[in-house]
Design brief:
Layout (H helix, E strand, L loop, with lengths): L1 H57 L19 E3 L9 E7 L4 E3 L2 E3 L6 E6 L4 E6 L2 E2 L6 E6 L3 E6 L8 E7 L5 E10 L2 E5 L8 E5 L4 E8 L11 E4 L9 E6 L5 E7 L8 E7 L3 E10 L11 H32 L2
Parallel strand pairs: 2-11, 13-19
Antiparallel strand pairs: 1-4, 3-9, 5-6, 5-10, 6-7, 8-9, 10-11, 12-14, 14-17, 15-18, 16-17, 18-19
């Protein structure tokens, strides 16, 4: 009985010691796990920070548009030029006849709005494009978008009728519009004779040959213009008048007019035009009978300034002689 009582406190002490050891071990394990988590979390944070620094370092420079003062709080779409400056009102553009053309429309802060191109005048307006879709049957018109915000209107082969007002519009409320006034530059046209002299009037004898050249020089090297067209008094040429198309020097286009034996009925106004846009004319006079000796080619026309100049000099000489004689007679 005494032995059982002696083992009791010892057994209790062993149980208490074991419980304390187990508790300390568990707390130590939890502390170790927590320390590992903190260390790993710190490593992950450092890796994320390093990755963010690398991404920011490799980003392209941020392009901040030069906004006007009221644009700081107004985030609606607006138009800008190639330098990123806001623009209003209208702009003027000159296009070359026969050449391809692009009309710029840079829209900043578009924010899901739609961009459309229209043609308009005082009486009507027609839709050309909406977004990337073309809404006109003329295949020369299309949208040529240029990143990041240029909704360009492309025109393939400018014609005379393409001049006028073009509107780039954004479907805000009220709509925002950029108006472009388009003018078309026509080619330079000249009518030359056999000696490459430019003409406005020309005289011929009946039965003589007539050979004229209409030379069209495009306004820019990219222009693709048709050959010039000859007309007589605004109508189609007679059958006996021959026409030849040739290529001149540089980018010139030449259309030759040839009449083998001129008749009096060949007199009239001969006009030369390109796409009914540029026109130049020469007056042809075919004379016969007693008038043939008075004029031949441009001799009569060119002689007129010399004739008047000679008369003026003669009048001055006569006046000087009269004054000199009067002065001599009245002298003592």
């Amino acid at each position: 009985m005494s032995m059982r009582l002696a083992w009791g406190p010892k057994l209790f002490l062993v149980l208490v010691t074991t419980t304390v050891v187990i508790g300390n071990y568990q707390r130590h394990g939890e502390r170790t796990h927590l320390r590992e988590q903190l260390v790993n979390g710190h490593k992950v944070t450092r890796n994320i920070t390093r990755l963010q620094d690398e991404i920011i370092a490799n980003l392209p420079p941020l392009r901040i548009p030069r906004l006007r003062h009221h644009r700081v709080t107004d985030w609606d779409p607006y138009f800008e030029n190639a330098e990123g400056q806001g623009i209003n009102g209208s702009q003027n553009v000159a296009l070359h006849l026969g050449a391809p053309a692009l009309l710029d429309c840079r829209v900043a802060m578009l924010s899901g709005k739609k961009v459309m191109w229209l043609r308009r005048n005082a009486d009507w307006a027609s839709l050309l494009t909406l977004g990337n879709t073309t809404h006109i049957s003329d295949p020369r018109y299309s949208v040529s978008f240029r990143y990041p915000n240029n909704w360009r209107l492309a025109i393939a082969g400018v014609r005379r009728e393409d001049r006028g007002l073009y509107v780039c519009q954004v479907n805000t409320h009220p709509p925002r519009m950029l108006v472009t006034n388009v003018t078309v530059l026509a080619p330079d046209i000249r009518i030359l004779d056999e000696a490459r002299h430019e003409l406005r009037d020309r005289y011929y004898k009946t039965g003589s040959g007539i050979e004229l050249e209409c030379v069209a020089q495009p306004s820019c090297p990219d222009s693709r213009i048709p050959h010039p067209v000859w007309r007589k008094n605004g109508e189609t040429l007679p059958d006996h008048v021959n026409i030849y198309h040739i290529n001149g020097s540089n980018e010139d286009l030449v259309t030759k007019l040839h009449i083998e034996r001129a008749k009096k009925t060949d007199s009239g106004e001969y006009s030369c035009s390109v796409s009914q846009f540029s026109t130049v004319a020469v007056h042809i006079h075919v004379l016969n009978g007693e008038k043939q000796a008075a004029v031949h080619h441009d001799q009569w026309n060119s002689a007129q300034p010399n004739h008047h100049e000679g008369l003026s000099k003669l009048n001055v000489a006569i006046t000087s002689l009269v004054l000199l004689r009067t002065w001599t007679t009245n002298s003592p």
